[in-house]
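Cross-posted from the bioinformatics board.
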Amino acid sequence: MRLDSNFVFNKIFGIEFGVLSPRMIEKMSSVAITSSELYDIDGFPVDGGLADMRLGITDPGLICRTCGNTIKDCPGHFGHLELARPVFNIKMIPKIYDLLNATCDSCGRILIPDSILKKATTTMDNIETREGPLGKKRYIRKLIKHAKSINTCPFCHSKQHKVKLEKPYAFIYNGQKLNASDVRERLERISDADLQFLGLNQDYSRPEWMVFTVLPIPPVTIRPPITLESGQKSEDDLTHKLTDIVRTNQRLAENIKSGAPEVIIEELWDLLQYHVTTFISNGTAQVPIARHKSGKKLKTLEDRIKGKEGRFRGSTLGKRANYSARSTISPDPMIRLDEVGVPLQIAREVTYPERATEINIERLKSLIKNFDGYPNASYVITPDGIRKKITESTVQNILEEVKPGYVVERSMLNGDIILFNRQPSLHRLSMMGHSVRVLEGKTLRINPASTLPYNADFDGDEMNINVLQTEEALAEAALIMNIKNNIVSPRHGLPLIGAAQDYISGSAILTRKDTKLDKSTVEDFLTFAGIDTKLNKSTYTGREIFSMLLPKDLNFEGESSVYKYSKDEDAYVVIKNGKLEKGIIDSATIGKENGSLLQYLFVQYGGETTAKFIDQLSRLALITLTKFGMSANIANFDLPERTMGEIHKIFEEGNEEVNSMLKNYDKDVEQKILALTNKIRGRVRNATREGINENRNEINDMMTTGAKGSIMNFFPTAGMIGQQLLRDVRMSNGYEGRLTSHFKRNDMGLIPRGFVVSNYRDGLNPIEFFLHAGSSREGLMDNVIRTPVSGYMSRRLSSALQDLKIAEDLSVREGNKIVQFMYGEDGLDVSLSDKGDLNI
Amino acid sequence: MKFEVPKKYVEKFMEKYGKDADIDKLQAAYERSLITHGEDVGVIAAQSLGEASTQLTLRTKHAAGIATLNTTSGLPRIVEIFDAKKEISTPTMNIYLKEEYEKSKQKVAEFANRIMEIKINDVVSSYNMDLKRREVTLLFDREVMKSYGFTLRDVEKLLSNMKLEVEASENSLVIRDKTADSVKKLIRLRNKIVGLTMSGIKGINRVIINETDDKRYWIMTAGSNLKDILKIDEVDQTRTTTNDIIETYEVLGIEIARNLIIKEVSETLENVGLAVDIRHIMLIADAMCFSGEVKGINRYGITGESSSILARASFEVPLKHLINASLEHDVDEFKYVANNVISNQVAPVGTGSVKLISLDYGRKSEGKTDRKNKEE
């Protein structure tokens, strides 16, 4: 058997599961293990040892004696070990237990009368067609349970003695221990005809195969020794365990041969059983755990398979990718929304295999010529699959050789489509297609408008790029996965990509009623934003400039954030035929997770138009801010004397009320006080809101436009912070009867129970500060606990629902089962419709 | 395939543009907004809820008022619903009475007192146990008993069908049981007696009367017993609900349980201000219910019944699934997502659910391989 790396493998259509029979184990074995030694004095593998060269090769340079391949191509081969006495497979014990009690102890037939069995065959088929294979399994489970309860064999009429299982693997029958040989004998007696009622199959899982007589020895390739720096070889845990098994088996065989006393044989047999058990599963209940000399637990077969780092979750569902890169991200508002700035270093290193054709061959040749510069090519692959590195010495030959049909691995170029991703990848928008823009510097650059779907910020976040290697992948990334086509989230139908903070402030300033610009400024603006139109007026309003970004046939109406706040008619957004007639463009129309205009544009005009709109708008907003300026200062938080007095009064009134409540003590008083503190907070908030000086107050502008912050941030800054809560009640624990030693014992008033009278601007006193920090810490802890809980829920959901997909008739199916007759009852795609509704 | 616009949208469209508006425009908009065939909607639903749940609060939060109940909310509630737990942490009912009763506060209050479960424990002030005489003495609180309208006779009657000797005095009962020959048995006897329901409906621990804007009264309860509540004459069966999904399934059936899942999940999300489209919640609810019984989203529920062995094995406890599969000679057909991902093949969802026959890098095309396999 020779494996070629260019071999065409067939598609896998399914996997059949079964139990290995001793004959099968011998048949697939390439060597019988006879020695517990690994290497001889010269360091060569011993013939018939556990490192036999017929089991596969782990050393470079050696050739496998079974397949003739080197380390690269040899897949490894099984061996086998003839066991001196049979042993149980620990994982089969529960089934063996079932079988022993469900079958007759003398004739081996299933303990169910023939009359029922005759009917059972047809019932089983009926159930299978009606309820599927799981239904059949349930029925078989019932049959077995029934058989286990029967005490007289319906066939040979002998009285049954039931077997008891003493964990982990001792079967007690009639007060005597059944050893593995006895059990195997009984299992052999079960007839093929009965197997179907026991959930077994004569060709794939004969019951006696559950007891090993021959042990398969895994190839060395799955347990390679590691050579330490000192030159010593350190064996894998599996090999350690296998050596134990082989050694014990040898001793057992010798003792049997020499006719040793039964006690000694029993003891060695038990030891062999123990080693085989821990070889399969090191951690079965009531079996001592096998350890290294150092006390470390041996990692055996089960440990390799299960868990997050196991074969399934760690190796086959999660794979490592080549052609990828990772770096810190930083913002760049000047690149397009769908671009990602890639450092030159990465662009040179990570390649894309471009197929040479008559059209592009000249271009590719020039890349090959420039192999040590940029843009360059680093490898060519001939049609025979030979990979050639381009170097100083080979470049001439390769240049002459390359012709259509060759594949050239070239560096990343501007405009290439790549995948961009940030972990944790919580939803599909955590990985989207971007086009490459090679830039200087060492960070990956990202347009700040597209940070929300990735949940990225720039405090040291790192992100990954994956360069696609096939045309199919490229096409999907360029179309389906492209960020431009994923502006609107499938979760709620709102745009996740859009303006935030400065961009909202900027566009709000631009679209104010009184914003007017002269021609030369407008020219600057439009150049910066990349808009190409003829100007024929000497002055323009900001709204006219904004209208230049809109499609000419756009009609839109909607509330702006400012309108929601102030009910100012002029702030209500009206766009007619691509002209912004009135209204302020702010977070309610263009903001992230908000923007109604963006959502409308995306649904009506598509991703391309929306992306272009966001790009141009953010630049327009930027230059507007640069031109007009915007700065906040501490005076923005000033509240008039009157308001401060009112806030003080609110607190005093509350305090008095609390005192009077405490005088007329009843059992609900604590709850009543809690409700009162909420009321105080609400009143302070309202008083603050009314007291804000709206004249030239940039903080207020930021709040009303939705650029940043809200009254919930403003009132504790300017007014009063209020009650600090711990687990949703007023703080009370600390010293006996009081929070800190600064208060009187058992004083349940406002301040002694964590009410903060100060505000952030004036500062908190030390006690307030301490209590406030206590309350904040609760939030941090909550977050730490929440993350794994919600992560596990996510995993369960996607595991359960991963196979649900839309069929051609828009029903939702899982395989051949129908889950919904019409997806979502109307078949609408959330991200393509109006937030899951159909409005035109 | 042509899909007709659902009625509700047609009606809305007619209302907006008049009866003789151009319906083709609506049809075009509808077709443009349709979901794409092959779309992996299960994963989208899972991600929509999973991503949103990272923003949910973990602990129960309740409004600071007096007349409210403490119900589980936020992430724990969502997890509880998706697990299809038999015993939910805070069962509660909203009981509405028939129109003739619900307007009178007095009648509603009377009703509320009637359904509230009162155990013997609630009227006992103290008790005594005597092992030597094998008897338990219960001392009753006269005042409380009176307020509930009970007499000692009622308690006696309740105990009469148990095989016990009961001796009544002024405000105490002496209960003798000859079989109670150990402290353990005596304590068990006492607990059994004290836990007996004197009146009301089992499981209804607390009742709170709420008022609507138009002066109608309804009852909120801690604890739930839908089956018995619905049997009562005054109860309006069309509006009375519980938040216990399994109970609803057992009493009213699978369709109602499905609707309750949708309602409870969307309300929980709404309370914390998270927007998740109802389609995703519906899909999860349907996946939990389409087999005819409510199944949780865990290894004992729908994940454990997935058709693909490798999908099950890759979720939790892999060895169990692999061993059962080999014993039963199962075949894992590679028609699902997990097993195709495992084997580095194109999964049959999305663009992978359609086939394009092309010459790929000079290798044999997939189409040919298919045919070859079939011939073999």
